[in-house]
Amino acid sequence: MLMATGALTGAKALSAASLNTSSGRDTASRKLIVTGGHPGDPEYGCGGTIARLTSLGHKVTLLYLNNGAWQQISAATRISEAKKACAILGADSRYAGQVNGNAIVDNAHYEEFKKLIEAENPDAVFTHWPIDNHADHRAIANLTYEAWKQLNQRFSLYYYEVSDGDDTNQFPAPTHYVDITTVEDKKQAACYAHASQDPKYFFALQDTVAQFRGLQCRSKRAEAFLLQLGSATDVLRSLQIVLSG
Ligand SMILES: [Zn+2]
Known about the structure:
Elements: E1 31-36, H1 41-55, E2 59-66, H2 75-89, E3 92-98, H3 107-120, E4 124-128, H4 135-150, E5 156-160, E6 176-179, H5 184-192, H6 199-216, E7 222-227, H7 235-238
Parallel strand pairs: 1-2, 1-4, 2-3, 4-5
Antiparallel strand pairs: 5-7, 6-7
Bound molecules: zinc ion (ZN).
Zinc ion binds at residues 37-38, 41, 134, 137.
């Protein structure tokens, strides 16, 4: 059940001291994870939001299902690009150890992925929208959802969109919009850090999505999210970087 901000209970409850009473902003440092099929996915889908969160002092980890090695492009290249992108966004990176283009979703991998998430003890997790043309994206959305369920839905779970039409399909009406206008350059630099992945084409596509989402919430550029019903909290909204929705 979705509980109203301020009515939270348990270990993740906000203490009175964590609220700046003049602005009402929740200033407690939070731990957020963005899961993605490949290096680059979290940056394209949520790079602006990640930059805004880390600039407010929150800790963000980008958790990739695999290292992105493919044909002539080595794991070392992809990992080094991801490291650069994360440094630009002020985030950390982790890998779930699967193989690009060969995602496995079974009980053993559900368990392994749940343990990874549990050890990080996040306040919120972002993942791909599960209807996606890339099997690796669908896989990590599935693994993330199962971890959320097995961990008693205790963290906020959000879906993000990436390369709409190419990857994400049928993304529903968003519940949250984050204005990324002021961090647009950082997002672009993080996406372009993935130089082996044709950023000219893919960033232009994602930027069109950001402009469309901006139109919907009266900003220049925005990222849109969908909160999973049943999340015990809505951390993004409590941090007051959500515009509307
Ligand atoms: Zn991908």
